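Reply to dn_fold:

You asked what the input looked like. This is it:
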Amino acid sequence: MSNLSGTTPSTPAEIVDEYLRLLMIPDPAAARAYIAPDLRIRFTGGRVMSDPAQCAAFNAKRYAWVKKKVERTEVVAGATDTEAIVYSLGFLYGAWPDGALFEGNRYVDRYIVRHRKIVSMEVWNDSAEWLLTNAGLACDREGA
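and this is what came back:
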């Protein structure tokens, strides 16, 4: 499958970047081209999923809309053609269900790419903390 530039992603970092681009459209059907049949996803809060459509459905409940601004994609040293660990780091931006806009919400995703397919995706971000703060339930750092 080709990306917007017309090239086929070939490195683990390119595979992750294209998967994320498609997932954030959201186009989970197209994103499936980059996953293994036994994909394991662990989303924020420890939510277990196995398909990109579940990620899109979760995001549709948590946000009016959300996108990722990828700051960098890092492949961990020791990667091979068989297996690589890839991190995507950056910021979420979008709107909460009430329409309030947000930006600068940090995220880190960790992927395992095996034989050019994503077999594992782990997702962390600041959304829960931001929601707690908006609800008046968060402690500030000094008072924690």
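The longest strand covers residues 101-114.
Hope that clears it up.
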